[in-house]
TrEMBL record:
Residues 1-20 form the signal peptide. Pfam families: SET. Keywords: Signal. This is SET domain-containing protein. The lineage of its organism: Eukaryota, Fungi, Dikarya, Ascomycota, Pezizomycotina.
Amino acid sequence: MASLSTLVSVVFFFVARSFGCLESQFGDLCTSSPLRRGWAQLDGILQRPLSSGALQSPLNEDPIPAASPSSPWSYTGDCAQELGDESPTCVYANRSFANGRGISIITTPERAAYIAKTPAFLDSSILSHVNDYSSPPYEERELPGRGRGLIANKTLRRGDVIFSSTPILILDSDSFEFEQDSVQEGQRYAAVVNLPSKTEMLFWGLYGQLWQDPITDRVNTNSFAADIDDENFSVVFPEIAVCCTSLTRDTRLLTKRQRLNHDCRPNAEYYFNSRTLTQDVVASTTIHPGTEITISYIDVSQPRDKRVSQLANWGINCSCHACTRSATLTAASDARLAQISELDRNLSREIARPELPEKLLSLYKEEGLFGFLGAAYRFAALSYCAEGQRSQAVKYAQMAFDSALSDNALNLDQALHMKRLAQRPEEQMCWQFRQRFE
């Protein structure tokens, strides 16, 4: 992993990007981000209490102009539209968003208006404790063979929020569809330079594969897929990136950079809330002090060879325990994953006897796939509901609902159904289903 360790290299970074002349130091990598979708968007219903300007100088923090009372945007412009498109896409920036962190959005006027009416923009208190790394439950360390990583310095329980952050860039999927690359690049440049200078430095500290232009490379490498108002967007969080560079303290600009490494058996998950525009990193199991906090970049329910191949496409050599264990243990793991896939497929089609979801639960735990437990809890709740076993149905329904806050296994409708089942099992369609129809 590269490190920008001197002020000279920082200045070079900014000069070089102006001419598009940065060259890769990291070898051949593909241009798509491996970061998988953090799709558990519960939109506040299950939400936890919320504890074209010129290039700015990187050496001076510029003042943050407030958006006008009539508009949330401190900058709008750089609109572009293809023939046949109903609306143009434009750059919208708010430099005071999230206590001065700022945000730039490339989208249509209609979608910008929708985003401007979300709680994230209407109630600044919602974000008062977001992007706060003053006393984190972890510390950043150098790890042999893994670069830098986050190490827990206190016990974290399943469901604990490790940190929350807001995106600095949000890019509408429509903004990726211009035939001329120069249009995309121009909009993205305007979006980046209209961020506060500290936040702009966070963006430039991200790793870019440098196959296209410096901004597009960083967006492609580090963006997450997210849905806002049922529309597809790419969002960039500097604190959660595939890999990133870091500046020395001499610059006095880059504060509290995070680095979450990949593991095929992660102990944390991440979620995007489209109402508060925040990404939470949450413990998916108990994490003890001294343990590295990890997330997964891919679908880790795949067999080992597929995981290794997918990660290798992005230049990532998987060195986690699940990828490096012996051939015998790997074969046993792949066999369990095949069982998991078959059970999940069967349980998704019909309500089975409780033995099957209990078996699925056992396999998930044995594989260390704690981020998938919610699905098995839900299947178990439905099975016991169909049997008319009230206490077990309520128990697993509550566990499934609670899991909606700490894993990616349930969508919103499923989570709310589990809440109703836990509260009033006799009123649900599954109640004594087997006795009534068999």
